[in-house]
Amino acid sequence: MSRRRDIPRIYYLGRECRRNGGSKLACPFTAITISGSWWLAGFNDMDMELTHETQTNGPAAPPAPGTGSLAA
């Protein structure tokens, strides 16, 4: 994936967290800050992409046993 120059790196950290099954509670910033907003935007965008993929390709495989992931 190529990064756009006008989107901060924090956005991509949020996407990466969601892709790896992380929680919104993992946001390292306060949600009402600019950094927190960018992080959550990336997280939510990836969440929508994963939801669309699930609707298109069927349900995702369950998390590996013992990983403690709550991602569905």
Q: What is the CA-based Rg, rounded? A: 13 Å
Strand content: under 5%
Percent of residues in helices comes to 40-55%
**What average pLDDT do the residues reach?**
81
What characteristic shape results from the CA principal axes?
Answer: globular
- Taken in chain order, the helices and strands follow as HH
Helix/strand/pairing category = mainly alpha
Query: What ranges have pLDDT less than 50 throughout 5 or more consecutive residues?
Result: none
Count of discrete alpha- or pi-helical segments spanning 4 or more residues:
2
Largest beta sheet, briefly?
none
Q: Count the strands?
A: 0
Distance between the termini: 24 Å
Structure report:
The chain has a domain at 9-56. It is mainly alpha-helical and 72 residues long. The model has no long low-confidence stretch (mean pLDDT 81). The protein contains 2 helices and no strands. The radius of gyration is 13 Å and the shape is globular. The protein starts with 8 loop residues before the first helix and ends in a 15-residue tail after the last helix.
Short structural description:
49% of the residues lie in helices and 0% in strands.
Which helices and strands occur, and which strands form pairs?
Elements: H1 9-19, H2 34-57
Helix pairs in contact: 1-2
Q: Notable features of this structure?
A:
72 residues, mainly alpha, 2 helices, globular, 0% strand
